[in-house]
Amino acid sequence: MSGARIRGWIKSRVGARLIGAASALALIGLVELAIRAGMINRFIVPLPSEILTAIPRIIVEENVLHRFWQTMQEMLWASLLLAGVGILLGAVLHRFRIMRLACETWVGALAAAPIVLMYPLFLVIFGRSATTIVMIGFAAGLAPVILKTLEGLAGTRRVLLDVGRSFKLTSWQQFWKILLPAALPSVFVGLKLGLIFAMINIVGVEFLINFGGLGQLINELAERYDLPGTYGAICFVILTSVVFFATAERLERFLRPGE
Amino acid sequence: MMVEPSRLSGAATEVIDSRDSRLLDVDRVSKRFVTSEGPITAVDDVSFSIAPGEFVSIIGPSGCGKSTLFNIVGGLVGDYEGRVTVAGDTIRGTHPAIGMVFQEESTFPWRTVVENVAFPLEIAGMSKQDRIERAEHFVAMVGLRGFERRYPAELSGGMRQRVALARTLASEPRILLMDEPFAALDEQTRLLLGDRVLQIQQTLKQTTLLITHNLTEAVQLSDRVLVMTYRPGRVKRVVDIHLPHPRDSEVVSSDAFGHYVAEIWHDLREEASRGIRDDESRVLEGRPRR
Question: Is the pTM above the cut of 0.95?
Answer without folding.
Answer: no
